[in-house]
């Protein structure tokens, strides 16, 4: 299949990198590459939320990530200049751009920075799934400030449609809720019900604990204690508090300290 003049994609999709005036292409499984890109995006977002100076993943981190199986993602580790015509990339071009001719390492570059041609069905399915998650979160956590009652699911769905909100397929539903609420406030009166909590995470769990907390909350105050523990005051949508508490209890084996300050 690889060496024929023209290649039958056979259900695979093309990944492409254009760099230094050169084009490189590889063949990927649509579902597995989609899942891998989401894993990478989530890890980068977690690092940014945690204030890490090293938010970008390295190629070694991608290759060695147990959640990412490159052999299941790529049809092969052959790198092309023009995949549909079966024209392979030269070793010289790969060395110039990637400093290697190792197809597996170049595959890591494709997942990290490549443009992947997702299928239309794939985009539509993911968009519908994410939209449903977003509406569910809003319907459980937002109210009409005029009567203090929640909006029905269908009303929120209609407002999102009228506001012509575009769903970001690579962001989690939670990450998009705040922006979407701002956009639909021109259509319906709506605001998120917030609670404030004080959290203390023991020193041995602070790294992972911080990442969990950062996914759910706005950190209003924080302080590192002399024993290495992390103390914070946070604000978050009321409907997220039990999920956050459950995750922190599971991580710390019940050693996290949480106090509800304001609801």
SSE order and pairing:
Elements: E1 13-19, E2 22-28, H1 30-49, H2 59-64, H3 70-73, E3 80-82, E4 87-88, H4 91-98, H5 103-113, E5 115-116, H6 120-141, E6 142-143, H7 153-162, H8 173-184, E7 191-192, E8 194-201, H9 206-216, E9 218-224, E10 230-237, H10 241-252, E11 257-262
Antiparallel strand pairs: 1-2, 1-5, 3-4, 6-7, 8-10, 8-11, 9-10
Helix pairs in contact: 6-8, 9-10
Question: Which tags fit this structure?
Answer:
263 residues, Hypothetical 12.0 Kda Protein In Nam8-gar1 Intergenic Region, Chain: A, Arc Repressor Mutant, subunit A, Alpha-Beta Plaits, 4-stranded antiparallel sheet, 3-stranded antiparallel sheet, 10 helices, 21% strand, flat
Q: What would you call the shape?
A: flat
How far from one another are the termini? Answer: 62 Å
- What Rg do the Cα atoms give? 23 Å
| CATH fold-level assignment of the largest domain | Hypothetical 12.0 Kda Protein In Nam8-gar1 Intergenic Region, Chain: A
Number of contiguous helices? 10
CATH architecture of the largest domain: 2-Layer Sandwich
Helical fraction equals: 40-55%
Question: How many β-strand runs?
Answer: 11
Specify the biggest β-sheet. Answer: 4 strands, antiparallel
Order of helices and strands: EEHHHEEHHEHEHHEEHEEHE
Low-confidence stretches: 1-6
Going by helix content, strand content and strand pairing, the class is alpha+beta
CATH class of the largest domain: Alpha Beta
Biggest sheet strand order reads: 9-10-8-11
Name of the CATH superfamily of the largest domain? Ribosome maturation protein SBDS, N-terminal domain
Proportion of residues in extended strands: 15-25%
Mean pLDDT: 87
Q: Indicate how many domains the architecture comprises.
A: 3
